[in-house]
């Protein structure tokens, strides 16, 4: 058991004094929190201004990426998180991903919308060829405002992956909990609590794709 020092305020009158001081401290903390919240709102407003300045540069980047085959599939699969969790069943679909669009910091809470655009050839696997997920943050809670439902033409990548590992992992619950499919991000039934795919796309993949796309080149040069 860890040791704790005795309270300095021991008598009843001193206890009342302690409560009064703690109440005063709480009020001070509240004032500091109000300033922090005001600061965060102003920072977000500035961030949105700079986000606007980036848009034409993202369009310039898009025109270059369109000329590189499987750029987004390779970028995603080389990210450290997906490097350990990417399966061929996911990659077969992802290699038809032609563009990623991000509407970031849609409000003062930092809500965002991700759009994945696939080549029409993806219709062999699924419909539609444009997937959207709109995540809203409010009062420190996260909710999904919009989610494209994927209609798989055959079996979903997750279903194929689960079948592949069914004999190795054991129970169905353990199997489902241990497998990550990129397309879990667009599933209502699968929680992405373990790996926040949206944040990885938003923070890493979209803003610094070249870092991950060139990962193999960097490793081979070491």
From TrEMBL:
It comes from the Eukaryota. It holds the Pfam family NAP. InterPro entries: NAP-like_sf, NAP_family, p53_tetramer_sf. The lineage of its organism: Eukaryota, Sar, Alveolata, Apicomplexa, Conoidasida. GO terms for biological process: nucleosome assembly; protein tetramerization. Belongs to the nucleosome assembly protein (NAP) family. This is Nucleosome assembly protein. GO terms for cellular component: nucleus.
